[in-house]
Amino acid sequence: MTEEFTIIEKEDIASLKFPTTDVLDDDNEVKTRISEINRALSLGNLEHSKIKIFFEDNESKKIVNTTVWAVTDKNVVLKQGVMIPIHRIYKLF
């Protein structure tokens, strides 16, 4: 899976543009994504562990290695208030 994703620095995410469509179309994958987000949030808050987030902006698929600090109903929040829309995330681990 990683071969089609480009590594990006967390600081560069703020300048990205995100379409409104969801990258996942399978209900089970969407449920799995929510579980992975909640797990990443726990790891970030309890152990300050970094995780890989696989996501897509309006140009290409990207991967960032970072800590999840918070989750809203629409976004995953990283350090310094950087946000990735949940509907643009493929996977977290």
Automatic annotation (TrEMBL):
Protein name per the record: Uncharacterized protein
Organism (species): Flavobacterium glycines
